[in-house]
Amino acid sequence: MTFEEAQRELEQIVERLERGDAGLDEAIKLWERGEELYKRCVGQLDAAQGKIEELARRAESAKP
Amino acid sequence: MKVEAIQYGDRKVYTVASFNRGVADWLSRLPTIWVEGEVTELRRNARWQSVFFTLKDPSDGACVGVTIARSRFDALRLDLADGERAHVFGRPELFEAKGDYRMRALSIERFGLGDHLAALERLKKKLAAEGVFERKRPLPLLPRRIGLVTGNDAAAKRDVLATITARFPAARIVVAETYVQGPFAATAMIEALREVSAAPDVDVVVLARGGGSFEDLLPFSDERLVRAVAASPVPVVSAVGHEQDTPLCDLAADARASTPTAAARLVVPDAAELLQRLDRARGALGRGARGVVERRRQRLEQTHERLRRAPALAVERKRARLEHSAGRLRALSPRATLQRGYAIVRRGDAIVRSADAVAAGETIDVEVAEGRFGARVE
């Protein structure tokens, strides 16, 4: 699942919850799914940031 | 002398000598006029009666032989040298022994400054009309090799080389040293230009010469050189003379520099400045990449905040609906019935639903909407 896919699903869940038309049990399930998606997205962002910093460090040390 | 024909029946036939004589006679009737050209192959010998030279058209190389009496030539004190422009006053004359015709000159005048200026102006108009000055190609940002056409010990050469090396130490330069003034300069520079522009990897050519007199710079306005510059396969930067000089090759070149040093600045970038720009670009690249992640993170955090609040919100909504139902439920309780004027009658703890359940004299309990009171059965 790409970051964008996860983010889109997360936003749909939030909108659904905010509309308030889900059953209580379903709302709890949606919430759990939302938290899971959030964790996945944060993980992907952290990985991307780490890669950027690593590249920046490598570029810096290769400076002529 | 009378030209006599030999009769062969009906046919009139002339000897070669009489034919030449006839032509010579006819030529001698042509007027004496001024002819303009470049003096070449000048031959003067103290033992000869005449001085010989060839007058050449600088634009297309057309030639005519010229003779002038040595005494007359010497009296003019022209000190003419090969390659110089001149006006020659004379008329055509046949050299009868050979059947060659040549020009018998009576006078020669050096090409003066005004003549040069007028000739330059005419040439400039002609070349401009042909579009020779119109091609302007962009110079390469980073030439693989640079061709330099210049004099062999010229300050111009030193200036160009020093400036290029200071700005871009890694630059590679092909130098073609050549004559840059005098009668052979134009053809020599054309050859040098052809040579360096054909050298492998040469992406731009600099044609450089320091300042000089008007005559010194004339070869740089030579029609053949101007055309060669315009037709060069690689862009040409012309840096000839000083600011105020505008030889025609400056107009035909792809770029013009006021001095050789300025030409060097045109052909190579400043390495230090280039590195700084690259560094700035790399910084911006890093910031750009971090910004992308940062914007995603902010949006994600906002969404997460909404998610965090959502369950509580949902429960709150459900609770509100429950309260609403409870309210309606309460509205349906017996108390509401009492409000309408009904009463509940109890004997002890039991609700009285029938008159048989009580006997006269017994105490009962009556509950109405507002409070309760005791009563006795009659």
Biggest sheet character of chain A:
none
| Percent of residues in β-strands of chain A | under 5%
- Arithmetic mean pLDDT of chain B: 88
Could you say what the CATH topology of the largest domain in chain B is called? Rossmann fold
Strand count, sense and barrel status of the largest sheet of chain B are: 5 strands, mixed, barrel
Number of helices of chain A: 2
Q: Please give the oligomerization state of what you see.
A: heterodimer
Task: Identify the CATH class of the largest domain in chain B.
Answer: Alpha Beta
Order of helices and strands of chain B: EEHEEEHEEHEHEHEHHEHEHHHEEEE
* Secondary-structure element string of chain A: HH
Percent of residues in beta strands of chain B: 25-35%
- Poorly predicted parts of chain A: none
The name of the CATH architecture of the largest domain in chain B is 3-Layer(aba) Sandwich
User: How far is the first residue's CA from the last residue's CA of chain A?
Assistant: 40 Å
Uncertain segments of chain B are none
Written account of the structure:
The complex is a heterodimer of chains A (64) and B (378). Chain A has 64 residues and is mainly α. In chain A, 86% of the residues lie in helices and 0% in strands. Chain A has one domain. Chain A is built from 2 helices and no strands. The model of chain A has no long low-confidence stretch (mean pLDDT 85). Chain B has a 5-stranded mixed barrel. In chain B, strand 13 and strand 14 form a beta hairpin. Chain B starts with 5 loop residues before the first strand and ends with a strand. The mean pLDDT of chain B is 88.
